[in-house]
Structure formats: C-alpha cells, structure tokens
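Hi everyone, sorry if this is the wrong subforum. Our group has a chain we'd like a structural model of before ordering constructs, and none of us has done structure prediction before. Sequence below.
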Amino acid sequence: VNNMAAAASGMGSRPVQRIQDEVLHVNEVFSRLFDHRPFLRGEIEFFKKEFEEKRGDREVEQLFRSLELITEIKEGQIEKIVNSSDDNLPRTIADVQVALHMCEDTLDTESKFNCEELLAKKRAERSARLTAVQQDVQEKLRLLQDSYQEKEQSLRAQFQQLEKSAGYI
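Answer:
Right subforum, don't worry. Here is the predicted structure as tokens:
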C-alpha cells in the first residue's frame, strides 16, 4: 500500500510540475507578445537621441542672430526712423487733413441733394414711360385686330363667291 501511495504521490508531482512548466512557458510567450515596454523604452531613447543631435544648437544660434539684429536696429536704425518721421510727418498730416476736408465737402454736397425729391421725379418719369408704352401696345393691338377682321371678311367674301360659282349656294 505504501508503494502505491508513493507511486501515486510521485505521479502526482510530475503532472503538477508539467502544468507549472506550461504555465511559465505561456506566461513567457504572453510577456514576449504583449509587453512592449522594453521595446518602446529603446525606441523612445533612440528618437530622443536623434532629435537632440539633429536639433543641435539651432535655437541658441537663432537667439544670437536675433540679438545681433536688435542691437543693430537699436544702434543705427532708430535714429534714422526718428529723423525720417520728423521730416515726413508734417507733410503726411497735411495730406490727411486735406483728404478729411474733401470727404466732409462730399458729405455736405450729398446732403444738399434731396434724395426723396429725386426719387419721386424718377418714379414719375418711369410711370409716364410705362403709360406711353401701354398706350402704344394697345394701339398696335387694335390695329392688328382691325387688320385681322378685314382679312377675315375678305376671305369670307372670297369663299362665298367660290361657293356661288361652284353652285353650292
């Protein structure tokens, strides 16, 4: 009986060991397939290194160029701008004032004209033209109807004469 128990216990440890080995193997496969942290860490470090190498000292160089330009403007250009504005500003102000007066004159001239009166006059002219056109159309229509009636009477008389000569009447 003891041999059987020992054999059973020995047999029982082997399958358990196999299951544990399989579980470890499955965990390792799962980790390799779905745990991307080491790969991503390496890729991030590579990207960071490449970015820093390519970028270099561009920002610092651009800051120095900006500083040089600002210093250059401060030393030489500001005085030129002040002198130029002192020379040209009075003339520019005078030109703007002339333009302002011209605009005011235009507005005054426009306000002198009574828009309502002008509109009423134009409406009356259009109404008179419309009446004249309507009368002309009526006259032409009347002449056309008269011509049509004359032609109708002429054709009736001609057909009656044909019927008489043919002996139908």
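For your construct planning: Confidence is low (pLDDT under 50) at residues 1-10. The helical segments are 2-34, 37-55, 58-112, 115-166.
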